[in-house]
Each structure stands twice: as structure tokens, then as C-alpha cells.
Automatic annotation (TrEMBL):
Molecular functions (GO terms): hydrolase activity; metal ion binding; RNA binding; RNA nuclease activity
Gene responsible for this protein: rng
Keyword annotations of the record: Hydrolase, Magnesium, Metal-binding, RNA-binding
SUPFAM superfamilies, per the entry: Nucleic acid-binding proteins
Enzyme class name: hydrolase
Segments forming domain S1 motif: 39-115
Record's protein name: Ribonuclease G
Origin superkingdom: Bacteria
Length: 487
């Protein structure tokens, strides 16, 4: 499997696409006015303590105060009992050093933790934790032990400088002592600078700003199967090469500047794929399709056979559709960056072995996801539940806004419904004011309905109230908007 990373930079935004075998797998978009802040470390000030929620709000200099729960204040190895309350730990006006774990999303402020960490290519340094761990994605026990031995040797050699703990990242698989020691020295230098700032800064203040998206991608997204990184900005190409030379020399040769006249994202139809990812319906190659609905509480995914009729029998048709859907769903979760609770309604399968195989395919496909996720079995209702860690806005939340006409509901009242609302409103006004004439202001579709299909009803209403009803089209009105003017 071959992969490429495409980086498109403009003064307004940075866009990154991860492509495998010519198919878009992930998209990251960061705009200059709304840059992501996950990973940033701030010195904030507690502005409100909420004992009833076991949480507090902290001012870190953003438009909205950020949120921190008691679990993120207490040390990770300390158990919380009924006597441990947020009021014992935090007081209003108290300065607090925190790290952002989740970007502000919609009306919700950023989520915070006091469990600080700073990442590099191979390691994550945790200054306040003695724990040393290895990424769960490194499955070989021999390799896990080798890496732990190497990092513990480095920590012993730098005991005075490195009192905290370390997590060994997936990218460290196969690397040697020298690379790990270099990463460790970099993290210690970085942390010393942050530590100096946190003692001298006045809240609210930014202590540590994570790398910009195009460099962060090189650190966090690059995997062994990525063969090439293309970037269409000459200036930032030089910065990317410089970063790789210092911290990731093994990937420096993979970085290319793309000077072509054809836009970089057009090479693999990335623009078209992003547009498709904003729609509800996802077409499968077999003829089946997915319907994806994102709500505030959860995301639901419905699998349908569509035009796929199979070749043998119904159970086999359903099984093959579900297998294809499982792989497609994992890709859509990454591409759309869907987080939180995800409910998947596969087509009902009678054979238990088919259910197990579909779950195995889905689980295998989810293993490639950079975000932490958890998969449950099939429920009594035939549903599959997935939880996926949400740290930033979904693709839809980044690129779209609620419809001004339907207020994000996705549906509108029919012209017939609006017409009957107008009739009821006229009767209400007649009882209260009894004017000479009624002028109805509405959209073109509603006025057309009133003059055509509802013309008999309008005549009956005029006869009933003994008044004239006139109509006027207001082009800027939505289908649900109307006004009744008394004349």
C-alpha cells in the first residue's frame, strides 16, 4: 500500500490530504482565523467553580472560558472519592497551568487538563508523571520491551534533567538508542523553556504553542507506508525540510516541492472527495450506499443494499454489502473526523459467523485510525456502537454552517402547511382587530400555492370573514416566513 501526503498552503488556510492508492483517506483543514489549539499550554485563571458539576471554568484568553473536570485536576494515579471535590482543589481567581485536549466546538468552550505533555516524533514527555509506557499499536512484545529498556537507559543517564515520564509513540518502532536520546534531549530543552515561562507569566498567557498544521502533519501523520510528501508553497517547503533535517532525517528525502500549474488537490480529485464528504449519502462500489447523519449527541450510519442485487441469495447479498460498508465506514470516520458516539445500523444478518466477520473487518479498518476508538459487538437491536475521541471540529463543522432557512433541521414546512398557518392567523387577527383588508406577504412558492391550489379555500375564507385578502411576493422571504399586514 502506497501513500502520499499533499499539503496545500495559502495565506488564509492550510489543508492537508492523506492519500492511499489514489484515494483520499483523511483531510485536515486549519484556517488562520480559527487555528486549532489542541496541545497548547496556557497559564489561565479560574473564573468559576461549579461544585454540582465537579468542574470549573478557566480563562485562558479565548472568547469563551474553557472547561476542566475534576478528573483532569487530580493526578492520574490518585483515585477520586466522594470527599474529593472541585472546591477543595480550585478556587476562583487561582492561577492554573493547563493544556487544551479538545478545541472549542460550536457553543462549547475548549476542554482542559492539568496533566501536561509535550510530543516529539518518537516520544511524549510528561513532566508531572513518573509513568513510562509504550503505544498499544506496537504489538510485538519483544519490540515493546526493547524500546522500554532503551528509554529507561536514557532516563537513567539524564535522571537529574528528566524527572517525569515518557510514552513511546508508534513511530518509534524499530528506531535505535541514538534517535530516542536525541528526541529526549529536544523534549527536555522544550520543557525547560515552558517551565521558565509558567513561573514568570501573568494569566491568561500562552506558554507553549504547538507546531503549525503542515509541520505537525510531518510529526504525527507520517507512517512507514507514506512514500512522498508534496507541498505547494516554496517558503514553507524550506521550513518543512529544515524541520525534517533536524528531527526526522529519515523522511527528508520524501519531501517534494510541487510547482505545477494544476492545483495540488486536483491530482487525486481531493476537492471532489471533500465535497462528497459533506453529503449524507455515500455510494458503495457494489451499488449499496451509506446514509450518514451527524447530530449534536451522536452520529448515525445506515447501511442499505441500494441497487446491489447479488448473485446467489439474499443473505450473501447482505453479507457482501455489509463487508464493503465496514471498510467504507472506517474511511468516512477518518475523512469526516466524526467523533463521540457513532451508531451503525448494518443490514440484519441471520448468520452469526457473518456478523463476526463484518465486525472483524470493521475493527481491522479502525486500527489504522489515528484517533482513539472503541468498538462494541452487535446489540440486541442489531446495531454496532463505536466511540471515537473527538479533539477538533468535524469536516462539516469546519466548512459548513446551519441553514438559515431551516435552522439546521434539514427539512422545511410544505407550502400547504404554511398556507393553513396563514388562514389560522387571519382568523385570529379578524377576531382581535377586524380590519378592512388583509395583505399577506410570503415567498413565491407560498403565494403561488395560495393563488392556485388554495384559491377555493381563500375564496371561502373571504366569504366567511367578509373581507378581501391580497397577496404580495417577498423574494427575500424563506418558505416558512410570512407576514400579515392589516389595512
Amino acid at each position: 500500500m502506497s501513500g502520499e501526503v499533499l499539503i496545500n498552503l495559502t495565506p488564509m488556510e492550510t489543508r492537508v490530504a492523506v492519500v492511499e492508492n489514489g484515494v483520499l483517506q483523511e483531510a485536515f483543514i486549519e484556517r488562520s482565523r480559527r487555528r486549532g489549539i489542541v496541545g497548547n499550554i496556557y497559564k489561565g485563571k479560574v473564573v468559576r467553580v461549579l461544585p454540582g458539576m465537579q468542574a470549573a471554568f478557566v480563562d485562558i484568553g479565548l472568547e469563551r472560558a474553557a472547561f476542566i473536570h475534576v478528573n483532569e485536576v487530580v493526578a492520574p494515579n490518585v483515585s477520586i472519592d466522594e470527599h474529593t471535590t472541585i472546591s477543595h482543589l480550585l478556587q476562583e481567581g487561582q492561577p492554573l497551568v493547563v493544556q487544551v485536549t479538545k478545541d472549542p466546538i460550536a457553543s462549547k468552550g475548549a476542554r482542559l487538563t492539568t496533566h501536561l505533555s509535550v510530543p516529539s516524533r518518537y516520544l511524549v514527555y510528561m513532566p508531572d508523571s513518573p509513568h513510562t509506557g509504550v503505544s498499544q499499536r506496537i504489538e510485538d512484545e519483544g519490540e515493546r520491551e526493547r524500546l522500554k529498556t532503551l528509554i529507561e537507559a536514557s532516563q537513567t543517564a539524564m535522571q537529574d534533567e528528566a524527572p517525569g515520564g515518557v510514552i513511546i509513540r508508534t513511530a518509534a518502532e524499530g528506531v535505535g538508542q541514538e534517535e530516542l536520546a536525541t528526541d529526549m534531549h529536544f523534549l527536555l530543552r522544550l520543557w525547560r523553556k515552558v517551565d521558565e515561562r509558567r513561573h514568570s507569566a501573568t494569566p491568561p498567557a500562552l506558554l507553549y504553542d504547538d507546531l503549525p498544521l503542515f509541520i505537525r502533519t510531518l510529526r504525527d501523520v507520517l507512517r512507514a507506508d507514506i512514500e512522498r510528501v508534496r507541498i505547494d508553497s516554496r517558503e514553507n517547503y524550506a521550513k518543512l525540510k529544515e524541520f525534517a533535517k533536524e528531527f526526522m532525517p529519515d523522511v527528508e528525502s520524501c519531501i517534494e516541492y510541487y510547482p505545477g500549474e494544476r492545483p495540488l488537490f486536483d491530482l487525486y480529485s481531493v476537492e471532489d472527495e471533500i465535497q462528497k464528504a459533506l453529503g449524507r449519502k455515500v455510494q458503495l462500489k457494489s451499488g449499496g450506499y451509506l446514509v450518514i447523519d451527524q447530530t449534536e449527541a451522536m452520529t448515525t450510519i445506515d447501511v442499505n443494499t441500494g441497487g446491489y442485487v447479488g448473485h446467489r441469495n439474499l443473505e450473501e447479498t447482505i453479507f457482501k454489502t455489509n463487508l464493503e460498508a465496514a471498510t467504507a465506514i472506517a474511511r468516512q470516520l477518518r475523512l469526516r473526523n466524526l467523533g463521540g458516539i457513532i451508531i451503525i445500523d448494518f443490514i440484519d444478518m441471520e448468520e452469526l459467523e457473518h456478523q463476526r466477520q463484518v465486525l472483524r473487518v470493521l475493527e481491522k479498518a479502525l486500527e489504522r485510525d489515528h484517533a482513539k476508538n472503541k468498538l462494541t459487538g452487535v446489540t440486541e437491536l442489531g446495531l454496532v456502537q463505536v466511540t471515537r475521541k473527538r479533539t477538533r471540529e468535524s469536516l462539516e463543522q469546519t466548512l459548513c454552517e446551519p441553514c438559515l432557512t431551516c435552522q439546521g433541521r434539514g427539512t422545511l414546512k410544505t407550502p400547504e402547511t404554511v398556507c393553513y398557518e396563514i388562514f389560522r392567523e387571519i382568523l385570529r387577527e379578524e377576531r382581535a382587530y377586524s380590519p378592512e383588508t388583509y395583505m399577506v406577504l410570503a415567498s413565491q412558492g407560498v403565494v403561488d400555492r395560495l393563488l392556485d391550489e388554495e384559491s377555493t379555500a381563500v375564496a371561502d375564507l373571504e366569504a366567511f370573514i367578509g373581507k378581501t385578502i391580497r397577496f404580495q411576493v417577498e423574494a427575500h422571504y424563506s418558505q416558512e416566513q410570512y407576514d400579515i399586514v392589516l389595512m
